[in-house]
C-alpha cells in the first residue's frame, strides 16, 4: 500500500472520528430551550439543504422536554414566514417547513404561487429553465427563496386554517410533503423556530464540512 493511500485513509478516519465526536456533543447539547436538527430531505431547498444541521429555538413558543419534544407551556406563537419544526397530524416524525397560513386564514395555491386571504404573495422568478425555476417570495414581510424542479408533484387547491392550527409548506414547492397533503398542523404539535444553519456536511462520504453554509442566515 502506497504512502499516499495510507495518508488518505488516516485523513478519512480522522474526519469520521471528528464527525462522530461532533454528533455526540450535539446530542448532549439538547435542552428544553435549544436543539439541533439534521435536515434529511430537500423539501426546504434552496433555503435548507440536505446535510444542514439547524439550530432551533425552543423558547420561541415555550420550553420543550428534550428528546420527547413536548412543549411544557406556550409563551409565543409562530409568525407567517417562520421556519419551524413540528409533528404533522398523526405522525411521530419531526418535520421542518415554513409557516404560510395562520389560524383563520384561507390559503390558495396553484402549486407554486400562494395567496393568503385572496392576496397573492409577492413572487419573483430569478431563473427559469426547462428543468427548474427559482426565485424569491415575500411572506410576513420577509423575503425567502423558493424552487420548483419540474419533476415533482405540486398539489394545488384551497384550504381553510382552523383556529389553533398552522399551514406549513416547503420552499421546494414540487418536492415537499406538507400541509397541502396532511392538512393544517395543530399548535400543540409545533415545537420550535429554526434560527440558523449551524453546521453543514456534504451528502456523501467523507461528509466534508461545508463552511460557507454554516454562516448563511435564514
CATH homologous superfamily designation? Umud Fragment, subunit A
| Annotation field: number of helices | 2
**Biggest beta sheet summary:** 7 strands, antiparallel
Helix content: 10-25%
Q: Please tell me the overall pLDDT.
A: 80
> What structural category characterises the helix and strand content?
mainly beta
> What is the fold named in CATH at topology level?
Umud Fragment, subunit A
Are there runs of 5+ residues with pLDDT below 50, and where?
3-7
- Largest sheet strand order: 1-2-16-5-6-14-15
Elements, N to C (H/E): HEEEEEEEEEEEEEEHEE
Under CATH at level 1, the class stands as Mainly Beta
Distance between the termini: 46 Å
Radius of gyration: 19 Å
Number of strands: 16
Description:
This protein has 218 residues and is mainly beta. It has a single domain (31-215), classed as Ribbon (Umud Fragment, subunit A), CATH 2.10.109.10. Helices cover 14% and strands 36% of the residues. The protein has two helices and 16 strands. The chain has a seven-stranded antiparallel sheet. A hairpin with a 4-residue loop joins strand 10 (122-128) and strand 11 (133-139). The model is unreliable at 3-7 (pLDDT under 50).
Amino acid at each position: 500500500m502506497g504512502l499516499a493511500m495510507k495518508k488518505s485513509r488516516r485523513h478519512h478516519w480522522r474526519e469520521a472520528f471528528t464527525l462522530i465526536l461532533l454528533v455526540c456533543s450535539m446530542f448532549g447539547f439538547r435542552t428544553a430551550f435549544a436543539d439541533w436538527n439534521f435536515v434529511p430531505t430537500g423539501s426546504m431547498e434552496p433555503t435548507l439543504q440536505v446535510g444542514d444541521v439547524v439550530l432551533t429555538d425552543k423558547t420561541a413558543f415555550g420550553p420543550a422536554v428534550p428528546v420527547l419534544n413536548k412543549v411544557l407551556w406556550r409563551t409565543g406563537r409562530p409568525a407567517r414566514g417562520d421556519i419551524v419544526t413540528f409533528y404533522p397530524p398523526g405522525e411521530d416524525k419531526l418535520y421542518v417547513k415554513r409557516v404560510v397560513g395562520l389560524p383563520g386564514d384561507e390559503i390558495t395555491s396553484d402549486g407554486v404561487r400562494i395567496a393568503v386571504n385572496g392576496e397573492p404573495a409577492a413572487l419573483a422568478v430569478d431563473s427559469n429553465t426547462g428543468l427548474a425555476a427559482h426565485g424569491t417570495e415575500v411572506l410576513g414581510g420577509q423575503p425567502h427563496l423558493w424552487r420548483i424542479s419540474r419533476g415533482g408533484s405540486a398539489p394545488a387547491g384551497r384550504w381553510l386554517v382552523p383556529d389553533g392550527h398552522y399551514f406549513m409548506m416547503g420552499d421546494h414547492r414540487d418536492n415537499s410533503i406538507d400541509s397541502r397533503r396532511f392538512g393544517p398542523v395543530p399548535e400543540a404539535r409545533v415545537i420550535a423556530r429554526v434560527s440558523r444553519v449551524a453546521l453543514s456536511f456534504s451528502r456523501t462520504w467523507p461528509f466534508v464540512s461545508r463552511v460557507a453554509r454554516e454562516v448563511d442566515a435564514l
